[in-house]
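Justification of resources, computational component.

The compute hours requested in this renewal are based largely on the per-chain cost of generating structure records like the one below. Each record pairs the submitted sequence with a full structure-token output. That output is archived, and it is also reused by downstream analysis tasks.
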Amino acid sequence: MGDLAKIFKAYDVRGLVPDEFDEPIAEAVGAAFVEVTGAGSVVVAHDMRESSVPLAEAFVRGARSRRADVVHAGLGSTDLLYYASGSLGLPGVMFTASHNPARYNGMKMCRAGAVPIGGDTGLSQIRDRAAELVGVTATPVGSLIEKDLLPGYADHLRTLVDLTGIRPLKVVVDAGNGMGGHTVPSVFDGLPIELVPLYFELDGDFPNHEANPLEPQNLLDVQRAVVDSGADIGLAFDGDADRCWVIDERGASVSPSAVTALVAVRELAKAPGATIIHNLITSHGVPEIVQEHGGVPVRTRVGHSFIKAEMARTGAVFGGEHSAHYYFRDFWFADSGLLAAMHVLAALGEQDRALSELVEVYSRYHASGEVNSAVADQGEALRRVREAFAGRGEFDEVDGLTVTGSGWWFNLRASNTEPLLRLNAEAADETEMTAIRDEVLAIVGKVSK
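The structure output for this chain reads:
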């Protein structure tokens, strides 16, 4: 199947342009998308990468060749595409490679109502049919409508979180030359927010730093700007602005687990007794806090398809991941980094404490953060770790290996896309967390050599 087998991942499409992903492939995927989903109309948006416009246009040609009408939203964040799919009731496709470097591009697909399409829910069939259609051209028949959805998206977010009554806040936003520079100004316009923008110029070459807030070096500029400007908070978005990382007034990172707990408490205030989803490597403080506020915590595997499926199954009001993805029932169970940021701004602006004090109650444990190790024989590494910790805690293999002891836990799991093992460890005591982390890494390191 050539490049298609390589670029179709578990949840999306992603590859190097034009080596692995080019316009003929995008056109074939457009036709296959319509055939597999049976869509009569499709909504399409794209990010700021140089390759995004021609790839999106090729997809549109393919979709129209199968008699589908296309609503072309143009520039947008991934959560804007979810808004479009939800509000218009249409299947949607977003052209983006998220936080990947400039030469990459890809597609995120969903059915009407922002229902995700993954490997088990249509993506494999789209791949197989597209492979048969590469190089086959047909005349576009369906109509093309260009529609600016940014105002509607901004209005919708503002109805979900009311920021009009908060105290004035100075907010540094690092858009990383990504789509946050397009969406944030519209959403914040007219609110009691003094915006300090960093890298709002849309530039798919990412001239300042990679648009990946999970890497600490990419947070240095926003951390410095928060301290230097005396801001109340900093926000850092990834390339397609569906993830958001929070920085407190001291320039310190606020863990996504603390953000998950904070937003969960706010959502439970609106929906008492509701279900909250968290993946298995968020802090153990999350389910504790959810239960203390009358909610029902449900633990899932890592990955947005698992989160979204479990949210739909349980009717959960909110879900959070360690990777700074946040999912909302009132946003079609889809994720939105900006909506999560607005919840944090509301919580901060509704009281007088600094952000570091506000989130302290949600940060109960010491976490290692995610530590990646390149390991060719992942099975052997997991076997050795399992052997070393036999009898020292409870074992759980829902997603990789989770070992839970007295006051500590760790999870070691294989990456879905790279020859990496990912370790997350947490303990009530920082010294114990460090010891557990280092012991596991030492075992893994012996296998990787």
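The chain has four domains: 3-148, 152-249, 256-360, 366-448. Residues 3-148 form a domain with the Alpha-D-Glucose-1,6-Bisphosphate; Chain A, domain 3 fold (CATH 3.40.120.10).
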